[in-house]
Design brief:
There is one protein chain. By secondary structure, the protein is α/β, with parallel strands linked by helices. The protein contains six helices and ten strands. The protein is about 30% helix and about 25% strand. The protein is globular.
């Protein structure tokens, strides 16, 4: 008689986990003094707090652009050494290829992630449509407005295959109607397949996320 064969354990959830982060810029007060955060695929998390509290620095640590003085950042249990493997960015400073079209800028990330050029362009058009820019796909980004450029950057992040999107005030240049459409895209495109951490001063954006944390005195607490 065969013995009982135990069922395999379910796979561990893929999470972005920050533990006990400490960070201070040279000659400036300490920004982070024990901040911890856990974000699973499919979760949308908002970070709020006053200007200068360290929110952008926290994102840079989560994405591997800065290294903490103490603490760790791991994805699926592995130390995060190269942010390009796991993180797509939406930054306040819009970084685009100015002489290329909106479609080129959006599809470039998907192409770099391994899609064929044709598949990357199809995905690029879909994500441009999701942020309300389908009609501007063939325009050079240098002729777009600041708000339109911001939406191109958001679409590029959504078109990537990275597990987590880190967004720093992604709707700061947008009016309310456009903000609502962009937040819809951020929260629903790839739902269940990626996690989102968004720094925002907009309470409407924060209210639509699963959880909101306040960064205060260098630590994260429930808002």
């Amino acid at each position: 008689m065969m013995g009982h064969v135990p069922s395999p354990a379910p796979p561990a959830p893929i999470e972005l986990v920050a533990r006990d982060l400490h960070y201070a810029h040279p000659a400036r007060p300490t920004l982070l003094s024990g901040a911890s955060l856990r974000v699973a695929l499919g979760e949308n998390v908002a970070i709020v707090g006053p200007s200068g509290s360290g929110k952008t620095t926290l994102l840079a640590l989560l994405g591997g652009l800065l290294r903490p003085r103490q603490g760790s950042v791991r994805v699926a249990g592995v130390a995060l050494e190269d942010p390009r493997d796991n993180v797509a960015w939406v930054l306040q400073s819009v970084n685009v290829l100015p002489d290329r079209t909106a479609l080129d800028n959006v599809s470039a990330g998907a192409f770099a992630d391994g899609l064929s050029r044709a598949s990357a362009e199809v995905l690029g058009r879909d994500t441009l449509g999701a942020v309300g820019l389908a009609a501007l796909a063939e325009r050079p980004v240098r002729v777009l407005s600041g708000g339109e450029l911001q939406r191109v950057v958001i679409a590029r992040a959504l078109a990537s295959s990275r597990r987590f999107v880190l967004a720093d005030e992604p709707t700061g240049q947008l009016d309310r109607a456009t903000t609502d459409a962009v937040v819809d895209a951020l929260l629903t495109t790839g739902a269940g397949r990626r996690g989102l951490v968004v720094v925002t001063h907009d309470p409407t954006v924060a209210a639509r996320c699963h959880r909101t944390y306040l960064l205060r005195d260098g630590r994260l607490e429930d808002a």
